[in-house]
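Possible race condition, two jobs.
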Amino acid sequence: MPERDIVVPSGMDGIDDIAAMATHAEDHGYDRISLPEVTGRDGVTLLAILADRTDDIGLSNDVFSPWGRSPAVLGQTGVTLQEASDGRYRMGLGASSPDLTEKWHLAEFDRPLRRLRETVELVKQVTSGERVDYDGEFFDGGGLQLRGVDSAEVPVDVAALGPKAVELAGRFADGWVPQLFTPEALEDRLSDFRRGAELGDRDPADLRVAVTVRSCVLDDPERARDVARRQLAFMIGAYGPYYRQSIAEQGFADATETIHDAWTDGDRIEAIDAVTDGMVDRLVAVGTRETAEERLRCYEDIDGVDAVRLGFFGEMTDDERRRTTEALAPAP
């Protein structure tokens, strides 16, 4: 049976609330918790705090940008968090997006997959304790190595949607973290992941695939569906081009175009109304506990999926997240 992980939502009130979510997830048998890092709290500091306040649950991040920190700093971060957590850490990297790269990190969004590949390879080189020696298109040179801290194995998971990015994850990383795929589309994309593993002369069984499924269990199933519609409208309309393109290619092209156009025009109500029942039924897990559990099982039954990561929706309350966490906790 695949593992069940959990993802901390953005915008939580305070560090103590995040730590409380982590210990609550640990108490209910979740295997791993992952933290976001976009324009909010620094993920490294939060992970260090969680390493101290938890005992057994795995720790990950969603995701560090290859423009936000140098590969050497990422490598130092990886070995330090591995030491702090007694080996429970997995690093999350992704190609990021034009908006975050250019408007937050103030860098040019240039050849993101190439930069991501070089970052993954350099992180591996740094964390191994080797002397850095790299000849790439973005990074070139070296001569120093880790000192004063032991090297450590730091698994790197890549968040990716498109076929080339997923192939890159299979070829160079240690795992893939997809999001907002229907089960059928996820099965199709897994072929790209396996092809990447073959190109890298690696066994896909040694790599971890952990799919994020945003979930909401409420006594009022229609409110849960409305919460999902608003989040999907936001991610399609405002959250960069990649989710919109990915969802469109999964059979929702007309709806995603309508949602994006309405959102761009400032008509949030029209954008939300354009989210179809099929999108809610096939991309997320919402409604009663039985309905949501059935949806999660659809992903867990896919050959090659190692974990389902429970995600949330932005407008859920603390109580709603807590109840959903408990309702969908892994079987003891």
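Job #2 (started ~2 s after job #1):
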Amino acid sequence: MERRLVTALSPGMAAALPEMLTLLLIEDDAGDAFLVEELLKEADPSPRIIWARTLGEAVERIGDDVRCVLVDLSLPDATGLEALRRVLAAAPDAAVIVLTGLDDAHVGLAAVTAGAQDYLVKQNVDARLLTRAIRYAIERRRADLAQRGLVEAELLARENDRLERGLLPVPVLTTDELVHEARYLPGRERTLLAGDFYDTVQAQDGSVHVVVGDVCGHGPDEAALGVALRIAWRTLVLAGHAGNELLRTLDDVLRLERKLPEIFTTLCLATVAPDLRRARLHVAGHPPPLLLRGGEIEVVPGTPSGPPLGIFPEQEWTAIDVDLGDAWSMLLYTDGLIEATVGGGPDLLGTEGLIRIIDEHGGIDLDRIVGRVIELNQDTLSDDLAAVLLTRRASG
């Protein structure tokens, strides 16, 4: 039977193909495969062609470098749209073109609907048409993948918002003498939830309890552990526990729930007395809180009061008692706020840099502070960030 893959070459040079193109040709007929190779020699530059006689052989030879697949629909081990579907499954990121001797518009439409970028009939193809079809198919596939990536990113962002609304705490405060603000920002892009956590609860006696913590590491396991520790802390506070008794119980929870023995957690606990003039703090290997009184910003003295949770068994943490006065602001935060870089270089902001930012703004404005830190970092923060700001304004 006469081979009619090519009727005549079109005048002029074939269209250009992408540089370093690797193409997989799935064709059981050696003569047709030879003619395809001859046609593609007209392209500039000529692609690297991998020839497979069967679908099984093709699947074994598909690699990340294959950007386009030419597949016949009459193969020894697969035929029709089933062959196409198996190719699409094996090469999900490559452009797939059906090159067959069957001149059937219905089959062509079904192939494109199934996921092929194009449908070419062998006897109607010349060098220029084949080269152009390959180039356009690759560009269409690239656009499809980019669009899919955008859709996935949008869906992930919506899921992120939903999870954060569901898992981040709602402060329990009955007094109107305190202003409570909190900020939470996962550092890595497309992260659903970070290992940082915070919470605020006012007990029945009027005392206000705050926790800000940081589980070392990044990922879903650390995020789940952070949520577990926060819920355990709230339960213990509502049950009347405080101080070293509460910290040792959290340490037990951490050791039971962590996936690896080297996982530890830093945290800061603050208990503001019912009169809102005094506070007791426990700082377990965590960045020291900042205290604003009378227009002066300072690091709470005596911190830290002990090592992080999960390192030493039967640990004791020293209580730090602070006289707050009538009007004050106290900022508890994780190290994501002070480990941002300055100007994108190797130097970190640090606690002193954070204090300078607060002085520049004449007070603690969380939105402006976080915005300034990100601006200095010249990029999204690499570490997670959680911050809680409690403020008591002077009466009158």
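The chain is about 35% helix and 25% strand.
Logs attached separately.
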